[in-house]
Amino acid sequence: MRVTVTGGTGFIGRHVVTALAGAGHEVTVVARRAAAPPGATRALAGDVADRAIVSTLAGAEAIVHLAGLADASGSAADPVGYTTVNALGTLNVLEAARLHGAGVIFASSQRVYEPWRGPLREDQSSIGPTTVYGWGKLAAEGWVTMYARLYGVPAVTLRLFSVYGPGQRAAGGTSGIVAIFAERALAGRELVVMARHLRDFVYVTDVAAAIAGTVARLRDPALAGRVFNIGTGVGTPFDDLAHLVRERAGPGGAGAAGRDRRAARGGRGDDRPRAARVGLRADGRAGGRPGALPRLAAGDAGGGAIGTGGEVTGEGRAKVLLKARPTPAQLRDRLAAPRPDGLELYLDARDLGPDDWLPRLRAIMAAAPRAGEEGFAYIVEGPVRSLDGAFFDVTRAAAADEEALARLARFGGALGATVAVIHLIAPTRDPGALTDEYREGAFERALPLLERYAVRCRDAGLTPTIENIPPVSQMREGAAVYSALGVAPDDLARCCRAVPGLSITFDLSHAGLYLGAVGADREGYPPALRPTIDAYAAAPQARTLDEYLDRIAPWLVNVHVSNAAGLLGEGLPYGGGDFDLDAIVPRLAAGARYLVTETLEPEQDRAVFMREAQGRIAAILGRAGAKV
After folding, report:
1. CA 482/CA 534 separation, integer angstroms
2. Is 574 a catalytic residue?
3. How do residues 81-105 score in pLDDT, each as one tens digit?
4. SS3 378
5. Of 82, 113, 133, 594, which residue is the catalytic one?
């Protein structure tokens, strides 16, 4: 393939050129000063901030866009210059790709994330740049997604974490902290740690291998417009880094590791502890650990090493969970062999309502067969009926709903769960209420509760998610209930944009029923259901499952897996509906941390259909011993 690398003469660029040449590609380098590093077949002079770059990039089948200004700490002094090169320069590259039929791999940065102390996923929950550099990269990411969706440009964003390795210069700031420490240690100078930061350090050849692997898969539709972290998933404190570098330097570099304690107490900045969570493997597959990482950091990379485009491999792959209420009978059934990777516990009002609700639940969980191994996952889901007996409603601002969410978060935190789920629903018995005006009002009324929900979950260590609902909800009790909120994909995306930290639990069956309403022949349904069909068919936000997923992909965390048929066929067995789930599961696994089997069972205490789905999904994910 003819691959052009912008910024191919830089630290990362030289390694990328070597990796691409080694994979058999014909590599052209474009930089402000034309120079051909080892492996490049030719070099061209060009500035990505200049519109002339569009013609310079003609002839490329793939463009690896690395060129840009890299000093994040200095970007505040020149916001226009940094934005012109890093953001508008990317727009020029994308336009060249559109005109010449090329694909694009855009090298973004960890700097698009807010500084915080948890693992960072590629969804929107952790986005919050604090530098001009970070904002420029984030703007460029948006244009990459735009060109993928509007113009069909095969484009992928790779967020690089702290890259280090041979050829890195010991520049200012902390971007090259490994090189800075190495230079000082070899000179016998003190290594000063200015604050209690940690970073996810990733070796440059592993980054280059990940980029080369992505080039090979660039035209895979499953990657189009998506964002992946490139890191180890392990954060290394600067203190530990200083000691590791000093040890590597050996007796000839006897620099002592030290600390400016005044700076350490007050230090905060843009480099507070962070670690990548999910990304691309060195072969271009989605996953958490590129190549033979970590080189400096110790520990397991973690994250979900999940393949895309039908191939799912690796150590950390998406977890397959079963659904259960926290009752002794259901826990015994769900935790029997073959044991799942975890459980999603649906908490009914009967579980959360009694005065002794928490001691009771703790006793039930303590008496259940234990998951045994490290990594068993729990998700907690809120009730359909609230604590006052009414349907849970994100818009009614009721004390019963607030208390249900408080108890959900408290139990989830006590259990060590990772995710919480509530239904994005404003229930009504009147399908005539599904007007645009009513929907807009429902959205505004829902935001305060969703914001408090997100805060409660964050304080309990949970990822807060909202679940889509079907056009006609059965509410687990045969009732026909409608909602002005939560059925169409843009409802979920809009809430996630408005509420920091909010993510999505995607119910496949519910989405199928929405698609059934969009494409239904209204005359084939009873008159009572026709207003519902009309409401969603009038302005469909998605006509296919892929379109639905595209709209919510940035916030996707959890998936409820069951089949669907028509407008009312909810929660059907794996092979019993309109979907070919064997073809769909790979994409779901590529975008989510958890796949929860959630079919409706003839006997709630026996997971017959859910077990069938567990086995089918495990087979697709390549689990040992799984059977189709």
Report:
1. 13
2. no
3. 999 999 999 999 999 999 999 999 9
4. strand
5. 133
